[in-house]
Amino acid sequence: MLSFASSAALAASVAATGCVTTTPVEFSSEENYPPSVISQSNAEYPLREIGQLNLDETLETEAPLDVIVRDPNVDETLEYRVFLDSTNPPDTDFTARIDDGFIDPQGGSVDRPTTFTIPNTLLAPGECHKIELVVVGKFAGFIDLRAPVDEGDIDNATWWIEVTDTDNPVITVGCR
């Protein structure tokens, strides 16, 4: 009988102190970290130097841009856009966008080795070409072509490639 009385007193005490919660508990969502882009160690055109492409000396029809996209949000599908010889300010240069798509998760890995290719037919000889890769969690739209939905959820990489051939052995339009 004493235990029933103790249980009743405990229940009344808990009810009187308001320890019972009826509002749902909300847990914070996973933090969204920005992606980052680095060159693959064996990249033909590393990000840290100006690349050289002689169209007469290659059998390849495309210039490979080998990168590792890192994103701690391992389950997030990323979006990318590639721009060629964009103007300043670049965010309104619609003609410079030459590729876009998605970078899928890699089975729980932070690193996503990826190769983007630029058709050699787009690279006029005698010029230094600027190629830009923009990676985001999700693009905001098509007005500002580089803006992410979430501010700061972005990284970019820029390559400079000097292109020559027999008729254009000298770079007349420098890297700018």
Oligomeric state of this protein: single chain
Helix content: under 10%
Number of helices: 1
Shape field:
elongated
Structural class: mainly beta
- The total tally of domains equals 1
Molecular structure report:
The chain is mainly beta and 176 residues long. The chain has one domain: Immunoglobulin-like (Sandwich). 9% of the residues lie in helices and 35% in strands. It is built from one helix and eight strands, in the order αββββββββ. The strands form two sheets. Strands 2-8-7-4-5 form a five-stranded mixed sheet, with no helix packed on it. The chain starts with a helix and ends in a 12-residue tail after the last strand.
Give the SSE map.
Blueprint: H1 2-17, E1 36-39, E2 51-54, E3 62-70, E4 78-84, E5 97-103, E6 111-119, E7 127-136, E8 154-164
Parallel strand pairs: 2-8
Antiparallel strand pairs: 1-3, 3-6, 4-5, 4-7, 7-8
List keywords for this structure.
9% helix, 1 helix, three-stranded antiparallel sheet, mainly beta, 176 residues, Immunoglobulin-like, five-stranded mixed sheet
Give a quick precis of the structure.
This protein has 176 residues and is mostly beta strands. The protein has one helix spanning 2-17; strands at 36-39, 51-54, 62-70, 78-84, 97-103, 111-119, 127-136, 154-164.
